Amino acid sequence: MPQPTIASGGVFTFEMLGRPKLLRPVNLFGQWTETFLDPHPGRHPSEFQDPQWDLKSREAVARYLDTGLMYNEAMTSERCRMGCGKTLHAFEFFTDGDYAWTGALSHYVRHHHLRTPDLFTDHALRRHALPPRLRNHMLRLCARLGVGLLVSVDWWLTLQGWDTAQRGKID
User: Fold this and answer.
1) Which of 30, 31, 45, 46 fits a disulfide with 101 by CB distance 3.0 to 4.6 angstroms?
2) CB of 90 closer than 8 Å to CB of 104
3) For residue 40, is it within any domain?
4) What pTM, to 2 d.p., does this model score?
5) Residue 158 lies in a domain
6) Among the residues of the chain, which ranges form H helices?
7) Average pLDDT for consecutive 10-residue bins of the chain (171 residues)?
8) Residue 144 · residue 21 · CB < 8 Å
């Protein structure tokens, strides 16, 4: 199964270490849109719910999301879009060096049965054995060596919801 490609995106460096010498492409997912703010209106977490998803896998993916390395943040928050009332840090962005996601994503996975695309789920379940401290140390080392992130939402925007996206697989 081929990985999604990076078509466009913003460049980020860890810990403000200056201009990157090498860019690592990563796909951002789990970002929701408002009709008046985005050319791709109506993306909502409920489109990716799967109440039948295996609890053990769901919790493992949520734990994995909780252990990413923060690479960008905005000092703002929002209420859960599923209506539970929890205040979420949706504008904190995390990465594992291969994917990027919002700080609110683990909440949606854990509490609202949101299922991540299969490409990411398989990736997270394979890599969860690597201790988060070691993974984050490796990412910081990459930053010191001048590796930055080229972040794109293009792949995420091609997914139109759980059923119509063939569970997030790329043809």
Assistant:
1) 30
2) yes
3) yes
4) 0.77
5) yes
6) 55-66, 105-112, 118-127, 132-144, 154-158
7) 43 55 79 61 80 94 89 80 88 86 93 92 82 76 76 78 49 39
8) no
